[in-house]
Predict the structure.
Amino acid sequence: MTTGQEPATAVRVDPHVQVVRGTPDDVELAALVAGLVAASAHHAAPASDTDGAARSARARWTAPRPRAGALPGRGPDAWRWSLHP
């Protein structure tokens, strides 16, 4: 009783996430998937430049700055000069 159609072959796909230990319930798996989606969305490029001011302010705070003066020297009197420019 063959119909002339070949049986569908199963394609093996390696999972991106694997549970190593324990048996997570539906809520725990949903939280994991939501976290993975949020993490992958963080790396996506922004759709519009509506938060440009916030981004530039954050860049000013995190930008490395040259030190105002040299570090105080070492020695027994270094603490006295540590606050002098």
Observations:
- The mean pLDDT is 75.
- The longest helix spans residues 26-42.
- DSSP finds two helices and no strands in the chain.
- The helical segments are 26-42, 52-62.
